[in-house]
Design brief:
The structure holds two protein chains of two kinds. By secondary structure, chain A is an alpha+beta fold. Helices cover 27% and strands 33% of the residues of chain A. Helix content of chain B is 52%, strand content 3%. The chains are: A alpha+beta, B mainly alpha.
Amino acid sequence: MRDAYRARQYAYAVRSTQHDKMRWIWIDKFVEFRSGERAVAVKNVTLAEEHLQDHFPGFGVMPESLMIEAMAQTSGILVGEAKNFEEKVILAKIKKAVFFDYVRPGDTLKVAAKIESIAPEAASTSGRITCGEKLIAEIDLMFSHIDRNLAGKEFPEENFVFTDMFKSLLRGTVF
Amino acid sequence: MAMSRDEIFQEVREVLVDALGVDDDEITSEAALMGDLGAESIDFLDIVFRLEKAFGIKIQREELFPAESLMNNPELVNNGKFTETGLAELRDKIPHTDLTAFENDPDINKLGDLFTVDAVVNYVDNKLNAV
């Protein structure tokens, strides 16, 4: 239960900082979207991202935690769309996260996610991040459809996970 | 082709090592998924998904690990303990677990102890043989 709890706390923290000001989006657009199967998003890394000045001074490297977040957003939207965004899809478990190379300012990442299994309560995904031909990371995740898992615990009616911010990512994409 | 019990155990062991991040030698028949191997609620779904892939079977989560739906029914659980009706329901719903010790003290907090590696092997064994 601990991991699921932490994931929920994390989601609340992220969503509550999102209102109006903070833009917590770590992918730029989708370039492929096959409903219920697979999605590929692109992330352009730029020196204008403030944290790269400190991580690390003189040698900007995209933090691995943000690569997990980029994968969670790509996979999470894929999982959410599979059920018409009716479920509150929360990152519940990082099954695997292995990193093979640095990501530097100027790099264009492809974040590819695939649904491995999906059930009424949850979904499991696998994913790869690449930069050109180079494999950067392999990240496999589990998502919980929280309204179906918490033994009667109630969450707000509105879908606070899939706000307009995320949906606009899909709206802007033509396939 | 039918799988032997030992082959099923080896495959289940691999699933649990991957899902729970434990070592091979921690996976013994008696090991309880929660108490001994540190499984949490989302891990049960992870295990269900992995078993489906490993054995090519379809598993309803409630069939392998029924808990929530039973515990919220006052006819089955009273004062934190399973009633006679509750125990009968358990025998019916989870024939893959060994209820002998649990029947002496059917405390709901001990329900997790029933879900051992052996119970998972039993479940898969029944499922494959029934096909």
